[in-house]
């Protein structure tokens, strides 16, 4: 189990990070165990595609210049040492990236050694830097409070106005508190919205409304999280979303890439929900959010684009009838998709592109190149295959595929409830379209398609119904 976890961590490191880890372990300051040095050199040569049995005692014998296999006990000790030095490396890399946290830790180390003449000017200068506009991400807010807390505890003649220092600490604490409160409130409300449940009533948020408004003037971070929260609290009001769309590009540089990614994904989820009631406006708005997030790298993880970001961007472009743009996007960005995911993502999206152009046989051929070993891909491929057969008026294969898909949905565990509900609604509504029935029954089907809130590919279902019932 220990080796499995270590293998997962090391596999996630880039080649550059693995090289840095190799240097880290070879430094006598961090590691004095020669066996560990040999082990890491051995692992670096095999990164990132490690053999399954890489941490077996027999397998490691040659790596550690041992004639006899290691005992399980010795291997356990060695892997514990390896895990500890991996942890040290990850922390060191994290601190290297986090300039605010690094400066705070250095100031605190000087303070603990009672070097007032060294740390005091430094902490005051650092506070001035943090007070400048453009430091609204969570790390900056946290460090800003911790720095002001240091100053508030001091009694020094060089600090002319202690009352101001104390008030600064209070303000920074409030800003940190309000930002996190809004972030958690949004997440809570959003989870309820996804499950179509009534959100919990939080009286504290109502009592703090004045503070939200007050601090929003000076903190774009609080303003953005407040708008996210307001979007899910009052989904019928578009003005919150419109303000959010204006603020995001203006402050993306000051939010920090990790927080920016969280905010873009949250805004995209809100926009996707709004698409159900106003597809014309929000299809383009959601596509714009994806393209912005890719351009500013908020939606790029490392140097890679997730298959779902790739898929969703293309799906939205096709829905907006930007077919040539979608083809260009596929050609230009497919290499950014993680290699192991690229074949399936490319096959699925070429099928979607062919379907959008009316080349339904070609769409079915592309779908044969997509593995359906994951739940989401199985659902996406199944629905597109059913639609392609339907468009070709091959209703026998379409109904057979639909029946098989319904069985899959009923028997498969682990499908996310919203995805399962949307897929089941698609099946039920298409089945009603295929059955037809009296004019009254068909009108009921038309009304049901329009009123069903969570359904995959509602626009296509409406078109399919219209073709079968031109007079309705």
What would you call the shape? flat
Strand content: under 5%
Low-confidence stretches: none
> Helicity range of the residues?
over 70%
Overall pLDDT level: 86
Secondary structure tally: strands: 2
Order of SSEs: HHHHHHHHHHHHHHHEEHHHHHHHHH
Structural class: mainly alpha
Largest sheet: 2 strands, antiparallel
Number of helices: 24
Number of domains: 3
Please give the order of strands in the largest beta sheet.
1-2
Intertermini distance: 62 Å
Specify Rg, calculated over alpha carbons.
Answer: 28 Å
Structure, described:
It is a single chain. It is flat and about 90 Å long. α12 (220-233) packs antiparallel against α13, α15 (279-295) runs antiparallel to α16 and α17 (323-333) runs antiparallel to α18 (339-356). The model has no long low-confidence stretch (mean pLDDT 86). The protein has 24 helices and two strands. A hairpin with a 2-residue loop joins β1 and β2 (304-305). 74% of the residues lie in helices and 1% in strands. The chain folds into three domains: 2-97, no CATH class; 128-277, no CATH class; 372-472, no CATH class. It is mainly alpha-helical. A two-stranded antiparallel ribbon has the order 1-2.
Summarize the structure.
This protein is mostly helical. Helix content is 74%, strand content 1%.
Structure characteristics:
flat; 24 helices; 74% helix; 3 domains; 2 strands
Write the layout of secondary structure elements.
Blueprint: H1 2-12, H2 15-26, H3 34-46, H4 57-60, H5 72-97, H6 99-112, H7 116-130, H8 138-153, H9 162-194, H10 203-207, H11 209-216, H12 220-233, H13 238-251, H14 257-275, H15 279-295, E1 300-301, E2 304-305, H16 307-319, H17 323-333, H18 339-356, H19 360-367, H20 375-391, H21 395-411, H22 417-435, H23 439-451, H24 458-468
Antiparallel strand pairs: 1-2
Helix pairs in contact: 2-3, 6-7, 6-8, 7-8, 8-9, 9-12, 11-12, 12-13, 12-14, 13-14, 14-15, 15-16, 16-17, 16-18, 17-18, 18-19, 18-20, 19-20, 20-21, 21-22, 22-24
């Amino acid at each position: 189990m220990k080796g499995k976890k270590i293998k997962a961590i090391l596999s996630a490191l880039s080649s550059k990070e693995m090289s840095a880890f190799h240097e880290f372990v070879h430094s006598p300051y961090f590691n004095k165990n020669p066996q560990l040095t040999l082990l890491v050199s051995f692992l670096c040569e095999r990164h990132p595609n490690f053999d399954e049995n890489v941490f077996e005692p027999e397998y490691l014998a040659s790596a550690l210049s041992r004639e006899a296999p290691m005992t399980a006990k010795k291997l356990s000790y060695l892997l514990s040492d390896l895990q500890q030095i991996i942890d040290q490396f990850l922390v060191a890399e994290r601190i290297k990236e986090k300039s605010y946290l690094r400066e705070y830790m250095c100031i605190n180390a000087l303070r603990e050694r009672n070097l007032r003449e060294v740390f005091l000017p430094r902490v005051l200068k650092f506070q001035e830097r943090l007070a400048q506009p453009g430091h609204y991400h969570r790390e900056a807010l946290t460090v800003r409070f911790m720095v002001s807390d240091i100053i508030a505890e001091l009694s020094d003649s060089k600090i002319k106005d202690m009352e101001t220092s104390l008030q600064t600490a209070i303000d920074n604490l409030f800003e940190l508190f309000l930002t996190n409160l809004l972030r958690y409130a949004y997440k809570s409300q959003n989870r309820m919205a996804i499950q179509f449940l009534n959100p919990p009533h939080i009286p504290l948020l109502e009592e703090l409304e004045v503070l939200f408004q007050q601090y929003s003037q000076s903190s774009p971070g609080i303003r953005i999280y407040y708008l996210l929260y307001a979007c899910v609290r009052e989904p019928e009001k578009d003005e919150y979303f419109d303000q959010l769309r204006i603020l995001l590009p203006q402050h993306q540089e000051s939010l920090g890439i990790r927080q920016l990614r969280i905010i873009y994904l949250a805004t995209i989820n809100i926009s996707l929900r709004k698409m159900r009631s106003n597809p014309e406006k929000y299809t383009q708005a959601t596509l714009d959010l994806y393209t912005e997030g890719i351009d500013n790298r908020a939606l790029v993880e490392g140097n890679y684009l997730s298959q779902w970001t790739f898929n969703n961007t293309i799906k939205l472009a096709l829905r907006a009838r930007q077919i040539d743009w979608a083809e260009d996007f596929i050609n230009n960005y497919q290499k950014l998709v993680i290699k192991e995911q690229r074949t399936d993502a490319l096959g699925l999206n070429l099928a979607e592109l062919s379907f959008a152009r009316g080349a339904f046989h070609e769409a079915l051929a592309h779908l044969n190149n997509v593995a359906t070993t994951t739940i989401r891909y199985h659902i996406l491929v199944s629905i597109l295959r059913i639609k392609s057969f339907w468009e070709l008026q091959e209703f026998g294969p379409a109904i057979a595929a639909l029946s098989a898909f319904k069985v899959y949905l009923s028997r498969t565990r682990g499908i996310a409830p919203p995805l399962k509900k949307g897929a089941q609604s698609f099946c039920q509504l298409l089945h009603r379209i295929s059955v037809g029935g009296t004019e009254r029954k068909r009108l009921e089907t038309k009304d049901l398609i329009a009123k069903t809130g969570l359904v995959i590919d509602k626009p296509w279902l409406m078109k399919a119904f219209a073709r079968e019932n031109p007079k309705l």
